[in-house]
């Protein structure tokens, strides 16, 4: 069921992205010159806020030790204009670790993997209509990976990491700057001496 849910989210994101490509482009912001203390010269809001959550898909060697995953994230930043923004983001990811055999007996070890992150992430919107936009986003920062199991509770590993991906944003209403967004990002963490942690969070939420 989990795999089916991830597949459905991927198809939804792909279908929405294809819709963006065929929609006619038009101005989606107030005309230039509308700028104030809270808006840029092209009319977009200067302050950026976001809240979201979703599912995680383990990648590479991590698929052998991690199964179901979920995430939530929040962020704030600055919109330089309607195309370019810089976001500071906090994220939390939870993975379930399937039972692993112990060396001393036959009782399996089970647990979870937690990943906290604080990153700086530029966002570039490369396509926009009056209601829909498409963007790329990526950056890097600090990641803390913590294992919680029957045999070990809270062993942590601090490392740097990077992420990059793409998404779409749909304006909630004509009278609001809020947008519903859906995105996927590939994340790579430079864990040492353990193998690198890689995963793709599929996240949906609200962005202003």
Automatic annotation (TrEMBL):
Domain Outer membrane protein beta-barrel: 17-196
SUPFAM superfamilies: OMPA-like
Keyword Cytoplasm assigned: no
Residues spanning the signal sequence: 1-27
Pfam families per the UniProt record, alphabetical: OMP_b-brl
UniProt keyword terms in alphabetical order: Signal
UniProt-recorded name of the protein: Outer membrane protein beta-barrel domain-containing protein
């Amino acid at each position: 069921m989990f795999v089916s849910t991830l597949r459905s989210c991927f198809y939804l994101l792909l279908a929405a992205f294809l819709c963006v490509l065929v929609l006619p482009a038009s101005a989606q912001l107030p005309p230039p010159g509308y700028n104030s203390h809270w808006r840029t010269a092209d009319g977009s809001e200067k302050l950026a806020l976001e809240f979201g959550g979703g599912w995680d898909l383990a990648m590479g060697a991590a698929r052998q030790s991690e199964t179901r995953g979920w995430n939530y994230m929040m962020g704030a930043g600055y919109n330089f204009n309607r195309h370019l923004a810089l976001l500071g983001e906090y994220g939390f990811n939870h993975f379930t670790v399937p039972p692993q055999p112990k060396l001393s007996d036959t009782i399996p070890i089970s647990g979870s993997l937690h990943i906290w992150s604080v990153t700086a992430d530029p966002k570039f919107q490369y396509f926009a209509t009056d209601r829909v936009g498409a963007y790329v986003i990526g950056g890097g920062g600090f990641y803390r990976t913590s294992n919680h199991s029957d045999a070990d509770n809270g062993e942590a590993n601090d490392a740097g990491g990077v992420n990059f991906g793409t998404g779409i944003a749909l304006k909630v209403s004509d009278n609001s700057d809020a947008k519903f967004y859906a995105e996927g990002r590939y994340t790579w963490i430079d864990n040492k001496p353990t193998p690198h942690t890689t995963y793709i969070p599929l996240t949906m939420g609200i962005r202003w």
